[in-house]
Amino acid sequence: MSESQSFFDKVYSIVRCIPFGRVTSYGAIAKALGSSRSARMVGYAMNASHGMQDIPAHRVVNRNGMLTGKFHFEGSQLMQQLLENEGIKVKNNQVIDFEKHFWDPSS
DNA sequence: GGGTTGACAACAG
DNA sequence: GCTGTTGCCAACC
């Protein structure tokens, strides 16, 4: 139970640690988990995070800074709304100044 | 136990 | 520069 957390739990742990007004990418999280190539798993874990209120999945976007998973939210505009609420500008499902708002999970 | 899926990422054409 | 395909790895059927 100490370090035996599943891949999902690890992802949740990192996503939950994303500071306010910051975003990160799936690949960055996957890399932080030690599997830089399991970015898809990160997204899959997010899919299960729907029941997790402590998982700000809206702060997680793809490496391109695009809100790929916005369709998985209850409202198509919910994800963008949350990001804008944190001071992050979103245009056409894409985060503006993604690099500036990017947060390294290893940090 | 095997095959398919997937909120991505990297490479090739 | 953009579109298409492959790779990864764990979960789901």
TrEMBL record:
GO terms for molecular function: methyltransferase activity. GO terms for biological process: DNA repair; methylation. The keyword Transferase applies. Keywords: DNA damage, Methyltransferase, Transferase. SUPFAM superfamilies: Methylated DNA-protein cysteine methyltransferase, C-terminal domain. Residues 7-88 form the Methylated-DNA-[protein]-cysteine S-methyltransferase DNA binding domain. It comes from the Bacteria. The keyword Magnesium does not apply. InterPro entries: ATL_DNA_repair (IPR052520), MethylDNA_cys_MeTrfase_DNA-bd (IPR014048), MethylDNA_cys_MeTrfase_DNAb (IPR036217), WH-like_DNA-bd_sf (IPR036388). PANTHER family: 6-O-METHYLGUANINE DNA METHYLTRANSFERASE, ALKYLTRANSFERASE-LIKE PROTEIN 1. This is Methylated-DNA--protein-cysteine methyltransferase. It comes from Imtechella halotolerans K1.
